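Data deposition worksheet. Section B asks for the primary sequence of the deposited chain exactly as it was used as input, without tags or linkers unless they were present during the calculation. Section C holds the resulting structure in token form. Section D is free text for depositor observations; keep each observation to a single sentence. Incomplete worksheets are returned to the depositor.
Section A, Depositor: J.P.
Section B:
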Amino acid sequence: MENEQIWAYQFDENDIYDCPVEIQYIEDDEGNMQRIVPENATEISPGDLVQAKWTGTEWVESASAEYIESLETADSVEESDGAKALKAVADILETMVRGDAG
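Section C:
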């Protein structure tokens, strides 16, 4: 019998989300399959939290509001840089199509 691949969510010694880990299956002496969740892991997803911390029953946000805001600001800057790059490429293409390059 093939078991589906299922993931658990591992946390470090400070209970901060670390990485996904695969749940293992082992067969006991009677042929029954048992799911083994790795140590320091839970099957509950941390969702979209920036810095998820495991409380023993649920994930909570442990990142400060200032830190989260700084990430959002960094994303905005990257997007504006990306928009500038797209405009530059569009300008180059327009120039090439018009034929007045160089």
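Section D:
Residues 1-63 form one domain.
The first strand starts at residue 7 and ends at 11.
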